[in-house]
Design a protein that fits this description.
Blueprint: E1 4-5, E2 9-12, H1 20-32, E3 38-42, E4 49-53, E5 56-57, H2 67-82, H3 91-106, E6 139-145, E7 157-159, H4 166-175, E8 180-184, E9 188-192, E10 201-202, E11 210-211, E12 214-218, E13 224-229, E14 243-244, E15 247-254, E16 264-265, H5 274-284, E17 288-292, E18 296-300, E19 309-310, E20 332-338, E21 370-376, E22 386-387, H6 396-405, E23 410-414, E24 418-422, E25 430-431, E26 441-442, E27 445-449, E28 455-460, E29 482-489, E30 499-502, H7 509-518, E31 523-527, E32 531-535, H8 537-543, E33 547-548, E34 556-557, E35 560-564, E36 570-576, E37 583-584, E38 591-597, E39 604-607, E40 613-616, E41 629-633, H9 641-644, E42 645-649, E43 658-661, E44 669-672, E45 683-686, E46 717-720, E47 726-729, E48 742-746, E49 756-757, H10 759-764, E50 772-775, E51 781-785, E52 788-792, E53 799-802, E54 824-827, E55 830-831, E56 840-843, E57 846-847, E58 850-851, E59 854-858, E60 868-871, E61 880-883, E62 889-892, E63 911-915, E64 925-930, E65 939-943, E66 949-953, E67 972-977, H11 979-982, E68 989-992, E69 996-997, ...
Parallel strand pairs: 37-64, 55-74, 69-79
Antiparallel strand pairs: 1-5, 2-4, 3-4, 6-10, 6-13, 7-9, 8-9, 8-13, 11-12, 14-15, 15-19, 15-20, 16-18, 17-18, 17-20, 21-25, 21-28, 22-24, 23-24, 23-28, 26-27, 29-33, 29-36, 30-32, 31-32, 31-36, 34-35, 38-67, 39-40, 39-72, 40-41, 41-42, 43-44, 44-45, 46-47, 47-48, 48-49, 50-51, 51-52, 52-53, ...
């Protein structure tokens, strides 16, 4: 059946800018996808929708994605560019057509579809902006993989580890007239005229490393290039020259620096290309010529030392003097044979006409520099670590000056034009048999000796030169329980281990192994001299084709010249012989259970002292036009949907606000901040009323004209201070607005503006939102933000102590823990008499899109406090944590990739974990049950009065290209049944009369136990919390002192407001592992008399 393709239509759906890059990307999606009659693509960088529609008539299903269809589609684009008949002429596409076709021919654009999600709320996140402004009319064309056997852009390059940007790389490449520029790993720049060594287009999300010189730009990633194009048709890729005059190509031959295939090194006239190399060999009287490593030329009478043909693809390096020709490769020669008659036989290093013999320079050198002899190079590898660019005009003095300027103490010259620097000689360097064999004249001074082929004229600042031995594989004196396993084959791009660290100047086996062990990875390896990899034993079985001989792990470590650190695609593999992580898998895991259908997607959940759960959601920006923004769930009525839900109301949009439970006698819930306009300064109060099974009548109270914050705040944190007032910290000025790097107190002190600017929040915006806040036993205030933490004075809020930064991922210290990197934090339980240092636990987070797989903890008031790292069984960003009455913590929800925000995470983490702080570090996590409900952005976990945990929400707004949600707006409400309930024991109960407690007071309860007795009983207190975005504001667990006589037990209240700031707590009795239902008690009263606030007639206050 004949196929036909009608003209497509391109339409801009609303008035936004569409860049040539947008059209190029969208066109490729159009041409390589099985499209519906209409396809919309939204480009996140511009906000523009581009709609493509076309008609495939009678197109066979098997050809929907084949070359035939794509070829005909490219022809259609070409016709569009010649005859502009579309509603919108795609000029960018026309300008890019030559590149698009050439990239397709090279395989650089793989037939994969990369779609931008159509989301209407993406929080400002500097380091995830993948489209950069390209100078000099250059255009961003995508993310590309590095080549399998060499660089994708293999011409000029440089590294700048302090100020690399996409613009500086483009300028560097443009200045040398290259067509393509690519940035990699944040600090590397590569140039070229074509894509080599199998480099190919890949997903934009693979390029996620911020540029070191501008964190708002993306500079590729490990083995990934952010590629730009100058807009001109690129030249054809280099090729093997079949012949030059009477010189005929013999193909590609192997070679070795230790035993040359062609034994005479020739000095060409100008930069090396096939013409200059064959000409040099002709003049020297040799019938065989070979070009190697782009810039080396060798001659011979025949093939020596086992030289033999190799695969032509191994000779893949463009000539230094002509980028359209191949000049061999690493240890590979493009070989040519002269088919005519040479004018004379071989002449060893004939001097040019009128040139005198050459000599080392022994006088007139700077400082104490002196000649140190002729040394053999490359017998086991280069004997210098640093090579400067070839210089056709190099001199001994110039090379020494260049090395000295870079603080090197040894200089070496080779092959007339090469200058090397170092502080020691490596790879088993030895003196040559005679100084006279270093007999090639310097390019800039014909009387000076500048080494020879694989020979170096060496000069030193000091009379003593350290010459290190040939490196070996380090298999002894390893740290910890590491043991060497062998030289493992590693394939690019499917690396054996997923976590790569590049240590350009300081990679060592010991440092690599210590880093992997620190973050809980029991398998590790080093490669390419400067690369460290961390992973698991399972990665080896899944990703490696097996072991190779040790001899192929032969590249010295960048930070340890006497040991090898792997080889080219060869991983020096080490394994931990002990137990590194203990993740328990108990038989009793508990389980998820459906509770009730919801009416909204709650963004904030609070268990009130009426034992009902108050939910707040987006008001005014909700997906549901009839949403009031506030609802309350009666847990005793979940069998009757209509009765279980009570509709409440808010006046402004509480989207991404903060909240706490107040210490007043009503246990009012305070909500602050919000989405935009007046709501960002909103102050809202709800007095929980009613009782289980009986509806309340109170509603949220708010009046912006009477009561508001001093500063606008979106994503603020809040905590009740020891004096009973409320501290509000951080946020931004509305949706994706400027930072609000300050704190303020509620009720607001008299005397005008009293907010305080915080420079550290200003510096770390936007990665510090919803900061973690806790009152410590000393009275100091802990604040955690982005990946930093410090202790503040509760009175002045001055910094008392800056703590070490929170560790990030194994590959990056820049990973964050607060929104939008969003981990979760909790103060670990404190036990009477409360003398042990308090511990802060932080779990999960993200490294700008790569979720973290660890928890970190610190005792911030301990001397020389440091963070401990515990690996989790899986990665998790946007987790939620709930304190349980037995002192453990339930960790649920979140994703295994991405960051917080709409459309920014699509891989849900469905498993629940239990964290038990009574167990040793590294053994505290148990793997519990899994759910079928994805809980991503805007999900919460809330401890209920019966010991279950309420699981709610998920508002991911992630979509398929056709607009179908990948994950829905999740209104189903679940509960998690922890193991302590699932074991089937009857829950204990108790009665209590006094529920308003003073510090250090003694209060009686009467208990009924069913498994044990009061000698095995425990009592716990869990502070009332409001939870949003995984941040349980006000969370705190205490195990107070108690004594019992029979079934009557007397509990001693916490001693002061530092151990337990004023507020409401759930009181629990534990019969062995089984908790009772909780009773609410208030501890510490209302010292700030917040029960009388606010003093306005339209607010109902409970009094003091």
């Amino acid at each position: 059946m004949k196929s036909s393709l009608r003209l497509a239509t391109v339409t801009v759906l609303h008035d936004d800018h569409v860049t040539p890059g947008d059209i190029l990307s969208a066109s490729w999606v159009l041409l390589t996808s099985i499209m519906k009659p209409q396809h919309d693509i939204r480009h996140g960088s511009t906000g523009a929708f581009i709609r493509y529609s076309f008609d495939r008539q009678s197109l066979p299903a098997s050809s929907s994605n084949d070359v035939h269809f794509r070829t005909r589609a490219f022809a259609w684009i070409a016709s569009v560019c010649r005859v502009p008949v579309l509603p919108l002429e795609p000029r960018g596409l026309c300008e890019m057509l030559p590149l698009l076709v050439s990239l397709a021919a090279l395989g650089a654009l793989a037939p994969t579809v990369v779609h931008a999600s159509a989301f209407h709320h993406v929080h400002r996140l500097h380091k995830l902006n993948r489209r950069q402004a390209a100078p000099l009319n250059w255009t961003f064309i995508g993310c590309f993989t590095e080549g399998q056997n060499g660089r994708t852009l293999s011409s000029a390059s440089y590294v700048n580890d302090t100020s690399m940007t996409d613009e500086s790389c483009i300028s560097f490449c443009a200045g040398q007239s290259y067509f393509f520029a690519g940035t990699e790993f944040g600090q590397e720049c590569y140039c070229g005229d074509f894509f080599a060594n199998g480099g190919t287009n890949t997903s934009l999300s693979d390029c996620n490393e911020p540029c070191v010189g501008n964190s708002s730009e993306i500079c590729g990633a490990g083995s990934r290039l952010s590629v730009y194009w100058n807009g001109l048709p690129p030249p054809p890729p280099p090729a093997t020259v079949p012949s030059v005059g009477q010189w005929e190509s013999l193909g590609c031959y192997n070679d070795s620096t230790a035993a040359r295939t062609l034994t005479f090194g020739a000095n060409t006239d100008g930069a090396v290309d096939i013409e200059s190399c064959t000409d040099a060999c002709f003049n020297a009287g040799y019938p065989i010529a070979g070009a190697e490593f782009a810039d080396q030329c060798f001659c011979g009478l025949d093939f020596s030392n086992g030289g033999a043909p190799a695969a032509l693809t191994d000779c893949n390096m463009p000539c230094a003097g002509n980028g359209s020709e191949f000049c061999g490769g690493p240890n590979r020669l493009n070989v040519y044979n002269f088919t005519g008659t040479l004018p004379h036989g071989p002449v060893t290093n004939p001097p040019p006409p009128g040139q005198s013999p050459v000599f080392p320079v022994t006088s007139g050198l700077p400082s104490t520099w002196a000649y140190a002899g002729c040394w053999v190079d490359s017998a086991f590898g280069r004997i210098f670590d640093t090579e400067l660019p070839d210089n056709q005009n190099v001199t001994v003095e110039g090379c020494i000056a260049s090395c000295s300027d870079q603080n090197f103490t040894i200089a070496g010259l080779e092959f007339s034009v090469q200058c090397f620097c170092g502080n020691e000689l490596v790879n088993g360097g030895v003196l040559a048999s005679s100084d006279s064999v270093c007999d090639m004249a310097c390019g800039g001074n014909a009387t000076e000796a500048c080494g020879g082929p694989s020979l170096l004229s060496v000069y030193s600042l000091s009379p003593n030169i350290t010459a290190l031995p040939v490196p070996i594989i380090q298999n002894t004196s390893l740290p910890g329980e590491w043991a060497y396993q062998g030289c493992l084959r590693d394939l690019d791009p499917n690396r054996v281990f997923p976590n790569q660290i590049i240590n350009t100047d300081n990679n060592t086996v010991e440092a690599c192994l210590n880093q992997c062990a620190l973050f809980g990875y029991p398998a590790a390896g080093v490669e390419f001299g400067d690369e460290c990899y961390c992973g698991d034993f399972s990665d080896v079985a899944a990703n490696s084709p097996g072991f190779d001989v040790d001899a192929n792990c032969n590249i010295p470590c960048s930070g340890d010249a006497i040991h090898y650190c792997g080889g080219v695609q060869r991983l020096q593999y080490y394994a931990w012989n002990g137990t590194m992580n203990v993740w328990h898998t108990p038989e009793n895991t508990g389980y998820y259970e459906f509770l009730i259908g919801g009416v909204v997607v709650p963004l904030l959940a609070t268990l009130g002292i009426n034992n009902k759960v108050a939910f707040l959601e987006k008001h005014g920006t909700s997906e549901f036009s009839n949403s009031t923004g506030a609802y309350e769930l009666d847990l005793t009525l979940v069998d009757n949907f209509t009765l279980a839900w009570r509709t409440m109301h808010v006046q402004t949009d509480v989207f991404c606000s903060g909240a706490v439970v107040l210490p007043d006698k009503a246990g009012r819930q305070l909500n602050i901040g919000g989405w935009s306009d007046d709501s960002t300064q909103g102050v809202r109060l709800y007095w929980p009323d009613g009782s289980p099974g009986v509806n309340g009548t109170n509603d949220w109270q708010e009046n912006f004209n009477e009561l508001k914050l001093q500063q606008q705040r979106w994503y603020p944190g809040a905590v009740v201070l020891s004096n009973g007032s409320v501290l509000v910290v951080g946020g931004e000025v509305g949706s994706n607005g400027w930072p609000s790097p300050s704190l303020e107190i509620l009720p607001a002190p008299e005397g005008g503006p009293t907010w305080i600017f915080l420079d550290y929040l200003n510096r770390t915006d936007p990665n510090n939102l919803y900061p973690f806040l806790d009152i410590l036993p000393s009275g100091k205030l802990f604040i955690g933000y982005y990946n930093e933490a410090r202790l503040l004075d509760q009175g002045t809020f001055e910094t008392l102590n800056v703590l070490p930064n929170m560790p990030g991922s194994v590959t990056s210290f820049e990973a964050g823990r607060t929104y939008p990197m969003e981990g979760t934090a909790m103060l670990l339980p404190m036990h009477a008499p409360y003398t042990d240092p308090a511990t802060i636990l932080v779990c999960g987070g993200s490294n700008f899109g790569t979720a973290l797989d660890n928890c970190v903890s610190i005792q911030p008031e301990a001397e020389n406090a440091t963070w401990a790292i515990e690996r989790m069984p899986s990665k998790r960003v946007m987790p939620c944590i709930a304190a349980l009455p037995d002192g453990t913590f339930l960790i649920v929800n979140g994703a295994q990739q991405g960051v917080a925000g709409f459309g920014l995470a699509t891989d849900p983490n469905l498993s629940a974990l239990l964290y038990d702080p009574t167990l040793p570090l590294g053994q505290r996590i148990s793997i519990l049950n899994t759910t079928i409900v994805a809980r991503l952005y805007h999900s919460e976990a809330t401890l209920l009065y019966d010991g279950r945990v309420l699981i709610t929400g998920s508002d991911p707004e992630t979509y398929e290209p056709d607009g179908t949600p990948i994950f829905p707006e999740e209104m189903r409400v679940e509960v998690y049944i922890p193991p302590y309930i699932n074991q089937g024991f009857i829950q204990p109960n108790f009665t209590i009369n006094e529920t308003d407690w003073d510090y250090n007071g003694k209060y009686q309860i009467n208990v009924t136990l069913f498994q044990g007795n009061t000698s095995t009983m425990r009592v716990s207190l869990i502070a009332a919390t409001s939870s949003t975005h995984g941040n349980a504001m006000g969370a705190r667990t205490l195990f107070p002192e108690f004594t019992c006589e029979g079934t009557v037990c007397t509990i001693t209240a916490p001693p002061n407001a530092f151990i337990s700031p004023p507020g409401w707590h759930q009181l629990w009795v534990l019969d062995g592992p089984t908790p009772s239902y909780s009773h609410w008690v208030r501890i510490g009263g209302d010292p700030a008399e917040i029960g009388n606030w606010p003093d306005f007639p339209d607010f109902t206050v409970p009094g003091v």
